[in-house]
Amino acid sequence: MVIDVYSQYFSAEAEFSSVPRRAALVKLTSDSEAGFITYTVSATFFPFRDPEDFCITYDACFEKQIYSAKGRRSKKREKAFMESFRDIVDGLAAEQGAKVFWDAPLRDPVLA
For residue 39, what pLDDT is reported? Predict the structure, then answer.
């Protein structure tokens, strides 16, 4: 079962495929199956041309698997992952020449 533990939209700055991107969707996702769990951090950058433009693009999505082992979902483990979440997203963004503006959320967070 795939669950977005945390997701939120933020203002951002990037350019991919010659298209300026002004927002990002960042997520911590868990994926469990048959006693095995993985956690992934992702950032997707999109144009955000107006306040209703929350489209998702497929050419500017980057992710990093941060945990993979036997077990199940753990609130304690997720809390620890959230402590380093922004640093991981900042690293993914920097690798692509992008930046997430953490002080400029576009929507409230969604938590599972």
Answer: 98
CA distance to 1, 2, 17, 66, per residue, from 37 (Å): 9, 10, 34, 11
Taking residues 56-81, what's their average pLDDT? Answer: 93
> Using one digit for the tens of pLDDT, what is the confidence trace for 86-100?
999 999 999 999 999
Please say whether the beta carbons of 1 and 31 come within 8 A. yes
The whole-angstrom distance between residue 38's C-alpha and the CA centroid of its chain comes to 15
Question: DSSP class of residue 34?
Answer: T
Q: Are 97 and 13 in contact (CB under 8 A)?
A: no
Average pLDDT, the chain: 94
Euclidean distance between CA atoms 25 and 14, whole angstroms: 13
Q: How far apart are CA 73 and CA 90, in angstroms?
A: 25
